[in-house]
């Protein structure tokens, strides 16, 4: 029996009704998306207004950035996040928000160490401080420190210190005075893109006030007037209440050595442990400077990245 020609060209009432339901459902979902977009936009505008009121309440201030506060916000958001939207995208969105509202409160520019042919630290600075933030590259760490010290840059981005036989940039942090550059963050705070390329690690410096976040590490620069073994050094630090994670040394002369010490926890300028460290009975330590610190970055596990072949929720 031949096919009814109408069956291939005409839509039955049941099919038409089903198609109408699908179309209505899609229209309704799109309408919901529009309402959500409007709500997100409205909340962003409200957030900006509140942030500006906070800035006005603070009064005149040279640096408005708050790396510690930003770290607390991101940790909270990542911890509560659910669904298929990547956590890395949440970090990127909020990093742009932080940068934008900070720039609304006052001048905001970044100096970054970028030797010739190097883009890693510049890319890292762009990811962290936002695409609209003015970023200027310099060939030497000393130039970056000078830009921050003189107030031409709000923050500087420098390599994480390593002992490689060259004069370390962190020596310049070992000085007394107010409004001096200090370490304020470690970059990246979270890996926001999957890439086969190795991501460099860096420290951000600024004259911004350090803030405790609940999970921090700090840097001390300790001057010694005599040779001290690594084990004795760590013991003296422990006696004062510090847990040392890393110690790097630089010989300033025959009778003077500077040591960069990374310790667990937050160390404010008036920390009582600093006084105890200076007052060691044998006079080993001739000077101690608290030179900042950073909120411990989010781990791959925190971000739900693949760890040893397992996908973390």
Number of strands: 11
Fraction of helical residues:
25-40%
Overall pLDDT: 87
Which percent band covers the strand fraction? Answer: 15-25%
CATH domain fold name of the largest domain: D-Maltodextrin-Binding Protein, domain 2
SS-based class: alpha+beta
Output the radius of gyration.
27 Å
Spatially, the strands of the biggest sheet line up as 2-1-3-5-4
CATH class of the largest domain, anyone?
Alpha Beta
Which parts are unreliable, with pLDDT below 50 for 5 consecutive residues or more? 306-313
Q: Could you characterize the architecture of this molecule?
A:
There is one protein chain. The model is unreliable at 306-313 (pLDDT under 50). A five-stranded mixed beta sheet has the order 2-1-3-5-4, with helices on both faces. Strands 7-8-6-9 form a four-stranded antiparallel beta sheet. A hairpin with a 2-residue loop joins strand 7 and strand 8 (256-264). It has two domains: 45-52 and 60-215 and 296-313, D-Maltodextrin-Binding Protein, domain 2, CATH 3.40.190.10; 216-295, Alpha-Beta Plaits, CATH 3.30.70.60. The termini are far apart. 39% of the residues lie in helices and 21% in strands. Helix 2 crosses helix 4. It contains eight helices and eleven strands. The chain has 313 residues and is α+β, with helices and mostly antiparallel strands.
């Amino acid at each position: 029996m031949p096919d009814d020609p109408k069956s291939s060209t005409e839509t039955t009432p049941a099919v038409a009704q089903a198609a109408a339901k699908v179309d209505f459902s899609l229209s309704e979902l799109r309408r919901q998306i529009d309402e959500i977009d409007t709500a997100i936009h409205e909340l962003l505008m409200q957030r900006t207004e509140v942030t500006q009121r906070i800035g006005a309440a603070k009064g005149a201030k040279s640096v408005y950035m708050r790396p510690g506060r930003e770290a607390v916000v991101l940790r909270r958001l990542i911890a509560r996040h659910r669904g298929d939207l990547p956590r890395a995208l949440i970090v990127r969105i909020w990093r742009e928000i932080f940068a934008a509202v900070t720039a609304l409160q006052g001048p905001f520019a970044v100096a970054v160490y970028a030797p010739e042919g190097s883009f890693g630290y510049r890319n890292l600075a762009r990811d962290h401080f936002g695409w609209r933030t003015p970023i200027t590259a310099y060939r030497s760490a000393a130039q970056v420190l000078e830009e921050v010290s003189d107030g031409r840059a709000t923050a500087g981005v420098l390599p994480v210190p390593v002992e490689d036989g060259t004069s370390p940039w962190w020596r310049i942090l070992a000085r007394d005075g107010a409004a001096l550059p200090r370490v304020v963050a470690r970059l990246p705070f979270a890996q926001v893109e999957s890439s086969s390329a190795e991501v460099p690690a860096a420290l951000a410096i600024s004259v911004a006030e350090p803030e405790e976040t609940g999970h921090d590490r700090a840097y001390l620069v300790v001057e010694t007037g005599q040779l001290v073994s690594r084990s004795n050094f760590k013991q003296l630090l422990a006696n004062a209440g510090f847990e040392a994670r890393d110690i790097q040394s630089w010989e300033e002369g025959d009778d003077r050595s500077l040591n960069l010490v990374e310790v667990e926890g937050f160390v404010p300028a008036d920390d009582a442990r600093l006084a105890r460290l200076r007052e060691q009975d044998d006079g080993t330590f001739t000077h101690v400077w608290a030179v900042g610190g950073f909120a411990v970055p989010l781990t791959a596990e925190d971000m739900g990245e693949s760890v040893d072949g397992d996908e973390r929720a």
